Amino acid sequence: MNTRLRHFLLATLVLLAHAGAQAAICRASPTGTGDGSSWAQATSLTAALANPSCDEIRLQQGVYTSTDSPNRFSFSRDLRLLGGYEGTDAAPEQRGGAELTVLSGENSARVLFIDGTTGTPITTNTLIEGVTIANGANVSPGFGGGIRCYGLGNASECSPRLHRVHFANNQSNTSGGALSLVGDRGGNSSPELVDVSFTKNQASSNGGAVFNSADKAGTASPRLVNVTFSDNRSGFGGGAWFNNTGNGTSAPTIDHASFINNQDQRAGGAVFYSVASTGGTGDIRVRNSVFWGNTAIRGAVSWSEGSGSSITVTDSLVQSGCT
User: Which of 92, 198, 309, 323 is at a distance of 20 to 30 A from 13, taking alpha carbons?
Assistant: First the structure.
């Protein structure tokens, strides 16, 4: 092969690789009907999530919803979902804050279902960044009004990264007003949450903001850094967080958090309620955090049940101290 032909073939391969990388980026807008190849040809979020070639979905600022139920949006593969883009070809990389891109359940459906049960694990390669999850409503049996992240069965996983995500005004008629994390039957649901806030979410039963559950040899051990829980409500236990462990392993770690004005209506902790049974291990660890203005009938900061359940708070500011 002569030198000129070799250089030509190499240049062609580079161009094809570049084109392939560009094709993996899809642009979506609230009113998009195009193919997603540019902001002028933005597609809908529903179409982008359904397109397996969309490895990265960039969202123009605005409010996103759909007519789908019980989940407005769903996906079952690794991808990057990035909000806040101004959405112009003149400034294609310009982004704003999470409050400018809203995924809404319109108070009638769950906002987002992340399905790790289909044989394709949802790993830390998945990133959800710069969006608000709002007005979700889990009105049918199930968990999680804002997001449900489900790992069911051996080798199944739902462990994405959530960065700069705001959960607001979501509700569940069962548990997990904003977020439900479930590792079941050997599955794993252990996402990473960084710079995330939960505000005014509520659950009729457990976990006004978060329901975290490991059952039947499953794992649910999320890691949270720089998180805020404020004004969340539950009807039975855990105004901010309910930890449920059957014969699985649940070991959430929370660092640099604020728990402000969360409330439980009946018994158990206004912030944490942890229960472990049938040989499970539930171990919540919190450090460098603030607990203030939380209320409950019993245990404003925490309440735990079962020999395998524990809640440890260290290096933190706790109103009225710890007991």
Answer: 92
